[in-house]
Structure formats: structure tokens, C-alpha cells
Amino acid sequence: MKLLIKDAARYLNVSKEAIYNRIRRGNLQSIKENNKTYVIINELQEKELNDELFLKVQDLLKENIELKKEIEELKNNINLPVVFKAKWILLDEYLLKFKEKKRDKIKKYLVSRLFKSKKIKLENNQIYIRNKKLSKI
Fold first, then answer.
1. How confident is the model over 13-60, as pLDDT tens digits?
2. Which helix (H) or strand (E) holds 34?
3. pLDDT of residue 89
4. Is 121 helix (H, G, I), strand (E, B) or coil?
5. Exposure of 125 by Cβ count < 10 A (0-12 exposed, 13-18 middle, 19+ buried)?
6. Is 4 helix (H, G, I), strand (E, B) or coil?
């Protein structure tokens, strides 16, 4: 079968550049007639090209499935709370551990202990509580 470059590209579902690359590599034969380049495709070459395309499509489908899984994982992780591992945590964050009814009472107590305890400090107008779990780090 003898086709122009653009027709061969359309027939094989590839770009014209892909046809030129295959001609350069010697995978496709070409002839020039009247300043036009024709590609000669025999049945064996057509089958090989289709097999090559099929393998590429299969690889892209696998990659697509993996990317979809990754997207789902990322979507699921968006709503997860972020836990910071720090020696000091803000008073308001610390109070979230307790029931709402007790928070005010605990806050008043901790503020009263501000300059009396090494576990409570004032920095940049913020009150910090020493994180028990990480205080030994």
C-alpha cells in the first residue's frame, strides 16, 4: 500500500512526525515521486505498527489507572487532620483535648500558672503548653 505521509499518519493513527521518525529509523520504506513522499506499508509492517500502538495504549491505560488511584488517595487524605509534632503547642490547641464545659476552668488555671511553671510559656503574645509526649526529645 502506498500512501502520502499525512494519509499514512491518519491511517496508522499517529502524527506525521512519528511517520518521519520511523522512516529515518528504517522501520518504514518511503519513495519520492513528483516532489511528494510516499510511505509503503505492507501487511506485516501494518501489523507490527498496530501491535506497537496497542502496547503503548496498554501502558497508558495502566498508568491512567495508577494515577486515578493516586488521585483518590489524595482526595481521601485532604480531610485528615494534620498533627504537628512539636515540643510546645498553643493553649487553644491543648484545650481541644478536653470537654467544652471544662475548657474555661482549665484555661484560667493554666493562665494563672503562666510564670510559675516551666511547662507554660508566653511567646509572641501566645501562650504555649509543653507537649508531654515530646518534651524529652
1. 889 999 999 899 988 889 999 999 999 887 777 777 778 878 888 999
2. none
3. 87
4. strand
5. exposed
6. strand
The model's pLDDT over 123-136, given as tens digits with 9 standing for 90+, comes to 889 999 988 765 44
* Helix, strand, or coil (residue 26): coil
For residue 27, what are the CA distances in angstroms to 1, 19, 23, 72? 15, 9, 6, 41
Q: Which amino acid is at 111?
A: V
Q: Which amino acid is at 126?
A: Q
| Nearest-5° Cα angle at 66, 65 to 69 | 90
Grid cell 518534651 is found at 135
What's the mean per-residue pLDDT of the chain?
Answer: 84
Element holding 90 (H helix, E strand): strand 88-90
